[in-house]
Structure formats: C-alpha cells, structure tokens
Amino acid sequence: MKRTSVKMILLVCAAIISVIFGVGVGSVYISPGDIFAILANHLFGVPLPETVSAVHSSMVMDLRLPRVLLAFCTGGALAVSGTVMQSVLKNPLASSYGLGVSAGAGLGASLVMVAGLSGGILGAFLLPAVSLSFGVATVFIVIGISSRIDRGLSNVTIILMGMIASLFFTAIMDMLATSSPENAQRINLWTLGSFSMRGWIGVRVLFPVTVLSLLVFLRYSTEMDIMTFGEEQAQALGVDVKKSKRFLTALVAVLTGTAVAFVGIIGFVDLIAPHVVRRFFGSSHRKVLPAAALFGGTFLVLCDLAARTLIPPREIPIGSITALLGAPFFVYIFFSGRKGR
C-alpha cells in the first residue's frame, strides 16, 4: 500500500474518532457504544438498549450530533477554500478570510440583526441568505475593482483589495454594533463564530455545498498545480489564468460564504489546514484537497470541543480558540517565508 493511501486512511480514522469524541464528551458523557446504538435506532429502527435513556438519545440527535457535523463541514469548507486561494494567488498567507468574504458575510448578518429581521422562521432563512449574498458580492466587488486597477489581475492587487474590503466592512459592523446596543452582543458573537443551537438545517445545506465544491475543485486540480508555478508558466502551458482565477475565487466565495452564513466568522482554519496537509501529502491538489477537507473538519471539531469544555458551564467563542492557535502559526509561516528568500 502506498504511503499516501496509508496517510489518507489514518486521516479518515482521525476524523471519525474526532466526531465520536465530540458527540460523546460534554456535561454528560455518552459512550461510543451508546452513540452507535442511538444512531442505529434512528437510522434503522433498532430498539434502544435499556441502558440508553431517551434523554441521551435526544441529546445526541438534537444537540450534539448536528453541532459536531456542522463543525466538521465548516472546517472542511474553510480548509478547502484556503487551499484553493493559496494556490490561485500563489501566496502562503492567502485565505478567503483575507479576501473579505467573511467580513462581507458578517456585514450582511449584522444588517439583518439591526433591522430586527433575524427572529422567527423568516429570520432563520433570511439571515443566512443575506449573509451569503453579501459574502459572494464582496468577492465580485474585490475582483471588479482589482481588474480596473490592474488589467492583468495580479495576485498582489487582489490580496490588497481584499484586505481593504475586509477592514472597511469590519468598521461598518463596529459602527452598527455601537449604534444598536441591543444587538451589539449578537453582532460581536457573530464575529467570533459559534456552533451552539444551530440544528440540522446548517448541515443539510453546508454538507452538499462542500462536497459539490470539492468535486469541482478536483476537476480543476491540474490547472491549480500548474498555476502554483506562476502565471507566465501557466499561460505558456495553455491555462487561461484570468478565467480560472475568477471562477475559482467565485466558487471559494460561495463555499466560504455558505459556512459563515450559518456559524459566523471563524478565522485561521483556512490558513492552518493547507500548510499542515501539504507537509504530509505534497503539492498535488488531487491529494491535498480531500486531505485538507478531512483535516480541517477534524481540527474544527476538536477546537469546538475545547471551546465548550475548557471552562464549563461557559462556552468560549470558537473564533477565539482558532485565533489563539492561528496567530502564532501565521507568524511562523510569515518568518519561514522570509528565511527562504
């Protein structure tokens, strides 16, 4: 068996273990055997053992399992997005977060909250829809302005405009929070992300979007492999760099925007996962993309587990956990790149 296959199998096993661990650990411990019994009962109608209570069954199916699966899907989506952006923009520090997608999506969510439209059944669908629309629109604005400033649509221009858009939209969010004290806490919590009480709707939407996006990215894996060597080389080998860059960036916006629309802004996953995965799986995107999805999902499940168990009964915002791990990692990548020059 090839080393890559062994590594992928180990990564799949780690992902499964992290999900079981995430579902079982909490204020009430539920053993793996009980978890499988509850799943068998709901999926196949197998009677529950007498040792498993209905309360535990409801806790698993209504609270913990959807939360853990949403965390896994979100981590996978963000990790894949970061992998694509680092390849497309040929920058080890590039991410969908830095392009302004997260800030744009957060601004859309903040506007819905301030307008008082986030409650009830309508708000449950309106807030994610507006958030996603703003996130996607942000990327098109960034690309549109970048193409006017730089007809060659260089990577540096896109990254710079993304940073400007992110700072600008974050400033507007701060102003909205200040001008609406009754919504300030909700807006601030949104900017730090949370998987609490999200239910199954986020999983039902984000899972197919993540899988379909991953399949499309895999279709473009050869183009991304070539683009990592530079735009001139890619053009010489027949790759339409501008067209591919616009399409891949737009799809990254949709994927990231969908994730942010349901859980809020979570940074650094799209920075950490691609670098860790490339160290073990090399540079081929056909291997790196699925590995990044698995690693990102596993990473965020464990981060969420830490967020809700480190200081019980309080819950640490998931964005704070990823930032604590991501900030030193960012510094490490930055100075490692400087040493290599």
Automatic annotation (TrEMBL):
SUPFAM superfamilies: ABC transporter involved in vitamin B12 uptake, BtuC
Entry annotated with the keyword Transmembrane helix: yes
Gene Ontology CC annotation, any one: plasma membrane
TM region positions: 9-30, 68-89, 96-115, 121-145, 157-177, 197-218, 247-268, 288-307, 316-335
Membrane topology recorded in Swiss-Prot or TrEMBL: Multi-pass membrane protein
Entry's localization field: Cell membrane
Protein biosynthesis as UniProt keyword: no
One of the protein's GO biological processes: siderophore-iron import into cell
Top-level lineage group: Bacteria
GO MF terms held by the record: transmembrane transporter activity
Keyword annotations from UniProtKB, A to Z: Cell membrane, Membrane, Transmembrane, Transmembrane helix, Transport
InterPro entries: ABC_BtuC-like, ABC_transptr_permease_BtuC
Family in the record: Belongs to the binding-protein-dependent transport system permease family. FecCD subfamily.
Protein name: Iron ABC transporter permease
